[in-house]
Design brief:
It is a single chain. The protein is an alpha+beta fold. The protein has 5 helices and 10 strands; from the N terminus they run H-E-E-E-E-E-E-E-E-H-H-H-E-E-H.
Length: about 270
């Protein structure tokens, strides 16, 4: 395979992101008739992985690579060497070079082996084939779900409702409130008047407000001095629908009670 050196050198140093990079020690092995011929000693080089191309430079700041390894038709495996954290890139062709690389640590070696093993097009072809298989299974599953009969939402909702919630409205027990039934079927309104609802039945009367002791100053029913007859009326009326009127109504009662207490205190000191 012929490569344009200028184009390859430009690709090695351009701004395109690298898949992996770092310093490794490199040594080249040659195989002839099942015999291993070792080359020079280890050389420390800066390696850059881009796609299926592994470039190596003399220094990290070098402008051009000194070598290139095309990661096709090869295997990346750990190797037995005197140096620790060593692995090799070996090709299937007889007489091809084998690159023995040594990392600085266990984690660095594992990261390089993982990145180099996934760099070839053969690996990408296997990944694409597996993804296509998963996509086909997902499409079949989706088609099966669409063909299955859908259950009506109303029947499914009724199945989850409790039996008490499914009872008709008129079958619910009546609750007496202020002497009147809260349900329209047998309800009554004080004064003998009945208010029909929209369905023709009897509507629920509004609850009566609780009576206050403000009309009587004590349990015996004696009126509190200082309160006007208007103040003895309930504040819950059409004339006292705003908070300010309610505030003033209750405030007058407190003022009268405080005045009564002050008078008792004065009589006690005399």
């Amino acid at each position: 395979m012929k490569l344009n050196e200028r184009s390859v050198a430009h690709y090695a140093t351009c701004d395109s992101p690298a898949d992996h990079a770092g310093f490794l020690r490199k040594r080249v092995e040659r195989h002839h008739h099942h015999a291993h011929h070792y080359g020079t000693s280890y050389q420390r080089r800066w390696f850059v992985l881009k796609g299926n191309l592994l470039f190596y430079f003399e220094e990290r700041e070098s402008r051009e690579p000194v070598g290139l390894v095309v990661l096709e038709g090869c295997t990346v495996e750990l190797c037995e060497a005197a140096e620790e954290f060593a692995f090799a890139i070996r090709f299937d062709d007889a007489g091809a070079k084998a690159y023995v690389l040594v990392a600085d640590g266990q984690a660095t070696m594992e990261a390089w082996v993982k990145a180099l093993s996934r760099a070839s097009f053969d690996y990408m072809r296997l990944v694409v084939k597996e993804l296509e298989k998963q996509l086909e299974e997902a499409c079949k599953s989706l088609a099966a779900c669409r063909k299955s009969p859908r259950r009506s939402s109303s029947s499914g909702r009724k199945r989850h409702l409790s039996s008490s919630a499914l009872l008709p409205l008129q079958e619910k027990p009546s609750i007496l409130e202020n002497g009147c039934s809260t349900w329209g079927s047998g309800g009554c309104i004080p004064g003998g008047a009945a208010c029909p609802d929209h369905d023709g039945g009897q509507a629920k009367p509004p609850p009566l407000p609780p009576r206050r002791r403000s009309a009587t100053g004590s349990a015996t029913g004696s009126p509190v001095p200082g309160l006007s007859p208007a103040m003895l009326e309930s504040p819950v009326s059409p004339d006292t629908i705003c908070f300010s009127k309610l505030h003033n109504w209750y405030g007058q009662e407190i003022v009268a009670l405080r005045r009564e207490w002050q008078e008792r205190q004065k009589r006690g000191h005399l």
